[in-house]
Specification:
It contains twelve helices and 13 strands. With 322 residues, it is α/β, with parallel strands linked by helices. It folds into two domains: 5-121 and 306-320, Nucleotidyltransferase, domain 5, CATH 3.30.420; 130-302, ATPase, nucleotide binding domain (Nucleotidyltransferase, domain 5), CATH 3.30.420. The protein has a five-stranded mixed β-sheet with strand order 3-2-1-4-8. The longest helix is centred in the C-terminal third of the chain and has 25 residues, at 234-258. The chain is globular. The two termini are 14 Å apart. Bound molecules: zinc ion (ZN). Residues 166, 177, 179, 181, 184, 186 line the site of zinc ion (ZN).
Length: 322
């Protein structure tokens, strides 16, 4: 029987998302299991495997009907060697994930970084469909992303390609980043960065509703910053302008190099929609080459939390098909 299904697995710090898809990308079933981080994540793959067995028997599917499984992991991945070099959130270090998981699951396995796979998911079944050159920015607690060039993930020589969040946008005097540098895009355009800028701006503008919220003991979030801006608060507007200036600068510089067809904006902060896209486009257009601008369009991500499992399934389909 010809293999016609793929498994997509997306490992996160609190839960593992798992999905069964047809090779055409139709979702048959998806579910979550908790991530057991005890003993440096020693049980995670066994938990995945027994949960997959349970669901496949419920779906009356056989493993020989599967091309294999793709798995996304947050951290530094060596895709070719099938190794997790380092995944600090899970506890894996120099972990031969492809060997162990393919033994547990009894099917071929391919691994990649979770942000790369989110980009692949949007490219395959989401906002990037129909384009071959796609950049995804995931604006959440941090800034993640991935780059699709000619229908494949850009990895670079050591798997570090596509680390969009760590493009330097504040060359001098920038805030410290989790990566050890300062002034990365993540420090100014992530939810954390936007809230940090808002706290600074609120102190400078005491008539702002953001300052009043702080006085009342309310912790600023991107949601109430975008809400304040929608109600006409100048300070909140300044905060969003600043964050989108840096995102537009980074997006234009990356686009000037890659000449993408679509730039997809996802992650929790993208819920702001046009309130985010409008200033972003304005700043992007200042820094992008005319020809690059003509070819590219900004779109919001479509798959939400499913992007990772969809991309993982795409990885299995792309790399495990004989
Ligand atoms: Zn950084």
């Amino acid at each position: 029987m010809e293999a016609q299904y793929v498994l997509g697995i997306d490992v996160g710090g609190t839960s593992v998302k798992i999905a069964v898809l047809s090779v055409e990308g139709n979702l048959l079933e998806k579910w979550n299991i908790p991530t057991d981080k005890a003993n440096n994540g020693a049980n995670v793959l066994k938990d995945i495997s027994s949960s997959v067995d349970e669901h496949l028997s419920k779906l009356k599917l056989n493993k020989n009907q599967f091309i294999g499984a793709g798995i996304g992991v947050p951290g530094f991945i060596n895709m070719e060697k099938g190794m997790v070099d380092f995944a600090v959130n899970i506890g894996w270090k120099d972990y031969p994930i492809v060997r162990i998981l393919s033994e547990c699951l009894d099917m071929p396995v391919a691994v990649d970084n979770d942000a790369n796979l989110a980009a692949a998911g949007e490219y395959w079944q989401g906002a990037g469909t129909g384009a071959d050159d796609v950049i995804l920015f995931t604006i959440g607690t941090g800034v993640g992303g991935g780059i699709i060039v000619k229908g494949d993930i850009l990895h670079g020589v050591g798997g570090m390609g596509g680390e969009i969040g760590h493009v330097t946008v504040v060359p001098e005097g920038g805030a410290p980043c989790n990566c050890g540098k300062t002034g990365c895009l993540e420090t100014v355009s992530s939810a954390t960065g936007i809230v940090r800028i808002a706290n600074m701006e609120a102190e400078k503008n005491k008539e702002s509703s953001l300052y009043k919220q702080k006085q009342e003991g309310i912790q600023l979030t991107t949601k109430n910053i975008f809400e304040a801006a929608a109600l006409g608060d100048q300070t909140a507007d300044t905060v969003i302008e600043k964050a989108m200036y840096y995102l537009g600068l980074a997006a234009a510089n990356i686009a000037n190099v890659l000449n993408p067809q679509r730039i997809v904006i996802g992650g929790g902060v993208s819920a702001a929609g046009e309130q985010l896209l409008f200033p972003l486009r304005n700043h992007y257009e200042k820094f992008a080459l005319d020809r690059v601008k003509l070819d590219s369009e900004f779109v919001l991500a479509e798959l939400g939390n499913d992007a990772g499992v969809m991309g993982a399934a795409w990885l299995a389909k792309k790399y495990l098909k004989d």
